[in-house]
């Protein structure tokens, strides 16, 4: 869990959900601070959307409880929870103007807002999202990025207690996703409203989350800051969720005061543990020179500021991120050296 003391505004305790014999969520424990963006990271089918639906009150757990601001809300209807949910598919009426789409959630019977208050909130949201010029344009004439801004606007005009984002940027192109994820993180900070953001995109998790929870096969494997998840993953499954290229994972054995690497070829200073283990090392934590065992460069990728090398080394294929201070070529011999202080060990 997240290190350090934190007052949890939202808590899921032992939440389990089954569909028939399939257990989609299994004993989920999750916490969210009062001014925090929690990113739930996991692959398709991990249970991310089911988790959001339970928080929103659109689905009920078979076991466990949901608490908001100290109150149990497990069986509260969605309207009583005051939560705004933003989907990856735009829930806009194409024949309505942007203004009318933004006004729609403010005209619900529970809102009971005066016309002046509705206009003020729509103008405020439009200014925040930089869509003032689009207010009188039909939604059908918007680009994908503009539609998503309006969909986010529909959520923030209500000024809810909690935001839930269900992969809202998935359908946008890469450049627009990068721009909007930064804007969305800044917007949430400005509003000061807690949020849960689910995604399979590691870049979104690292750049947007105050806290990250890794979800796989219906279980939370680890929750912590992005740095903790990246540098101190509790298992290879968690480690593989973050990092591009992916972390290198090698089989090693303890021999005296050192670990022997693949094919018993490379010695590394001893870390904690005994017997056969799995050693994880990030590509940026392997130097292409300085080791004792030769490797052969197979592929050189230009990553802009660095090279990414695919190297056959000591019976394994590894990735190395190398400085552009020198060039590398396929077929070249290198001598990889692992930074043992950055290496990780897990039971085999």
Verbal overview:
By secondary structure, this protein is α+β, with helices and mostly antiparallel strands. Strand 9 and strand 10 form a beta hairpin. The protein has helices at residues 48-56, 78-81, 98-103, 115-128, 144-156, 174-191, 202-208, 226-231, 236-241; strands spanning 8-19, 22-33, 37-41, 63-68, 71-72, 83-86, 162-166, 195-199, 211-216, 219-224, 248-255, 258-260, 267-269, 276-281, 286-287, 295-302, 306-313, 316-323, 333-334, 337-338, 344-347. It has 9 helices and 21 strands. The strands form 5 sheets. Strands 6-7-8-3-9-10 form a 6-stranded mixed beta sheet, with helices on both faces. The chain has a 5-stranded antiparallel beta sheet with strand order 13-12-11-14-21, with no helix packed on it. The protein folds into 2 domains: 8-241, Rossmann fold, CATH 3.40.50.300; 248-347, OB fold (Dihydrolipoamide Acetyltransferase, E2P) (Beta Barrel), CATH 2.40.50. Residues 1-5 have low confidence and may be disordered.
